[in-house]
Amino acid sequence: MMSCRTATAMLIMCIGTAHAQPADLSAREPYQMVRSLQVLQDQIARGDLEAHNAQPALLKRIGESFLKVDAALWKEPRNARAAVTFLLSGGAPHVVASLRARNVLNIDEATVDGAIAYVEGRTDEAKAKLGHIKPRNLPATLGAEIALVQSALVAQDDPRAAIALLDDVRLMMPGTLVEEAALRREIFIVGQEDDFDKFEALAIRYFRRFRHSIYAGNFRQRFAISVARFSFAQRPDRFPRLVAVLDHLDRISQRGLYLLIARTALVRGKTEMAALAAERVDALSDDGSPERLRARLYRAAARVVTSGHNQAITELEKIDRSKLSDRDAEIQAAALAIGLNVRKALPEAAKGGSDTAPKTVMRPRIDFARSVAVVDHAQKLLDLSQEQLKERTR
Question: Is pLDDT of 372 > 70?
């Protein structure tokens, strides 16, 4: 069986340099060219950087070849479908628009017009043109692409419909970059819908199948930020299940994710989640490592408003500010300020009332949003993740 690297190398050879004129690409029919593109993109989903770097050149060559294809070939339905698939896979819209203007594509005009409108950012027109199409009635390659677009168009107004469409995408194109993109998108939508069971199942699937994807790094950052945002993140009893999800990652990736989760939870005031994530980082880090230092910071900062605030303040004061990033140094300063105020306030509150009054004191809510400037950056990232649900992320 041909290895992934060998397959990628052969594809890159077929693409050639900017000055080469390989005959094997131009002599192939459009559907065959797009099949080569999909093979390359599937290697991207497996983490092949060479394939990722080669993709723009291949897209360009296919686009150039499409404009030279004999009009008679576009009457073949699979070739016409390939033109739309090419467009939704990253191809240049002007190529398909040119074919559309020549009226050579043997395919529903609304499908072509809707696809062009979508990639050009005309979402209302795209929704009007593509909304009536049933992806399951199309061949899997095009059907999955259309369903992926439809999910992006309805995600804001009808997240449950978007989830159903993304389920269809995954069923139609398993193991491909299309499935990888659908998983990334669906995980965030089900999280916003507070469907933790499905969130857990999809996340495990992604980390098992696509943890090496070229897009996995960006996904992990958005994943950590989103986990701290979802309402289930306020329930520490679910943390062991989150640990089970992340256990599918290597040690370094786990540390990075837990640090992101701890920090994001902290600046959003979810101190229990922050402390739990920091504990995991501590367990996964070596003595004296920067990761363990950050874990100590986040854990102590999360505890400054608990009954252990005195110990938390002591731990914070022991941390060498010079070893922290500017943003983490801001967290340290804010946590110390809040902790010292808590230490002053709690004894006074405890003295109030009669001897028979309850001895418990209401624990003040930690709010780094007013004390730490970096939370603005975190919030912007969260807002961006919502906007990105509308866009094609591959």
Answer: no
